Amino acid sequence: MEKRDLVKILEEVKSGALNIDDALLKFKEEPFTDIEFAKIDNHRGIRNGNSEVIYGAGKTADEIIAILKAMERNGDKCVLITRLDKEKADAVTKECKISYNERGQIAVMGQFPEADGNGKVLIVCAGTSDIPICEEARITLEAFGNKTESLYDVGVAGLERLLKSLDIIMKADIIIAVAGMEGALPTIVNGLVDCPVIAVPTSVGYGTSLGGFSALFTMLNSCSSGMAVQNIDNGFGAACLASPINHIKLKKEK
């Protein structure tokens, strides 16, 4: 059950369309489903606004299928599977209806919700090699009810590409800036805008990039103040931060 489902139940009780006893039955659902190898959090959506997300790496295709089917029985309408390689995705597709983004190694079971955030999240990346992390962030954001826009391959090696897109950058409500190598792009972007910027270092780069640590250290030491920094290659985490920021005003209005 997601938070929007909880609100709908309460509204139906208020309007008289649903009696209190039936509403109580819906609330008495088990807080988690135990399928031996996994304990699925059925109330994650009520507490956090979105259903539990399945981390695909390290799980077998059969385990992912079993979790998806249990979540579907629980009424989860949009379920994310992250870090899902193509071989597992092909196996899962035979048993469950999912849409798969191979570039971002991320899949969705169910329908994307209607975007209900306050604005649009812009995803910017330095190079084409950073796109997989951007796609992970984009699909996650859209599954969490956000409008997105993408601006790829505008890194500091050719700064004119970024400057040519200043109108897009300036109009953004939230920006996720993704970069490998030395990781300078988020600092530059953050110095140009008045909206929240979430930086994501990637493991893209040569030897002394140290698998993304060089980019991470650059972002943590940014002289452009107020920028949030995520873990290496964590597009999902960036989206999980951007989404609640994009929904803050709606929460206040309620």
Short précis:
By secondary structure, the chain is of the alpha/beta class.
Task: Give keywords.
single chain; 254 residues; alpha/beta; 2 domains; four-stranded mixed β-sheet; globular
What is the helix/strand order?
Answer: HHEEHEHEHEEEHEHHEHEHEHH
Number of domains: 2
- Rounded mean pLDDT score: 88
Helix content: 40-55%
Which blocks of ≥5 consecutive residues have pLDDT under 50? none
Count of β-strands: 11
Distance between the termini: 19 Å
Biggest beta sheet attributes: 5 strands, parallel
Report the structural category: alpha/beta
Shape field: globular
CATH hierarchy, class of the largest domain: Alpha Beta
Textual characterization of the structure:
α4 (61-73) crosses α5 and α6 (131-143) packs parallel to α11. By secondary structure, this protein is of the alpha/beta class. 41% of the residues lie in helices and 18% in strands. It contains 12 helices and 11 strands. The longest helix is centred in the N-terminal third of the chain and has 13 residues, at 3-15. The mean pLDDT is 88. It is globular and about 60 Å long. The protein has a 5-stranded parallel β-sheet. It has a 4-stranded mixed β-sheet with strand order 3-4-6-5, sandwiched between helices. A two-stranded antiparallel ribbon has the order 1-2. It folds into 2 domains: 3-110, no CATH class; 120-250, Rossmann fold (3-Layer(aba) Sandwich).
